[in-house]
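Re: your question from the hallway

Yes, I did run it. Sequences:
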Amino acid sequence: MEYIRLGRSGLEVSKLCFGALTIGPLQRGLSAKEGSLVIRRALELGVNFIDTAELYQTYEPIRLAMQDLQLPRPVIVATKSYAYTRDGMLKSLEDAQKGLGLDVIPVFLLHEQESSHTLRGHWPALEVLWEAKKEGIVQAVGISTHHVQGVLAGAELEGIDVISPLINKTGIGIQGGSREEMLAAISFANAKGKGIYAMKPLGGGHLLASWSEALDYLLDNKEVHSIAVGMKSIEEVESNISYFEGRRDMASPSEISRRLHIDDWCIGCASCVNACPNGALEIQDGMAVVAHPEQCVFCGYCGASCPEFAIKVI
Ligand code: SF4
Ligand code: SF4
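Structure:
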């Protein structure tokens, strides 16, 4: 496994980052024990970078996976919160420390920033993260974003160490610009010393048919330091690690296509429509429908926003 410095954060991370959204209740819904075994296998095989978020509800399997494991390198966990107030971020920090069983959180990101305007709106939460970094409770502060303007705003802000942008071979899911504009923004952020780790390299599953080309597309881009790949089985972990270690004579990971399921008890409240960053959902005849399936990247945000638990990625 190749290890690389995550920009000026100084943290050294594996090229393959374990994307933990897939094991949690917003997607495959593995038990904490089952999920921990998948993550643990990745750690044993050399992955030392895990991407999660408060929203994903995967702190417990990550904590269990790291328990009593002796590894040659520290595990770098990156988590995210939607908190925008001081108290909200203090709570998010405390929950992450408790949930992950870590006194120090390696990377803490503001979840899903759209532009300099949303960053300004989250300023009290950012100040908490910067204070926590000074106190040694957080090692690096950053943002995740699907938006070109989000990357540019993060790049311009001195206190941002790490950016997790959405980027993939066909540009599916990128907001506010083209794939080329996103690449230019990543390049700009890289030049400013930001650590970059990509999300949605397989477009949330849409690029599975050409998964090796999709991974190569990002592996060939040296401005992307690490790539978060969602994994939910030991077979997928082993397959992805082999690929990242240079084996090219292998079958595709045993990935099962994902889809959105909407139960018939949906009340048409539109909370999911508003939560979807990609405009994939609409309300038709009083119920949510996936009106633009080609725009869905299976992020699971719609499921997290549903008061009736009526929509989820399966
Ligand atoms: S949030 Fe849930 S209940 Fe509301 S429209 Fe969406 S699926 Fe239906
Ligand atoms: S429909 Fe749901 S899973 Fe798909 S992109 Fe929108 S929020 Fe994400």
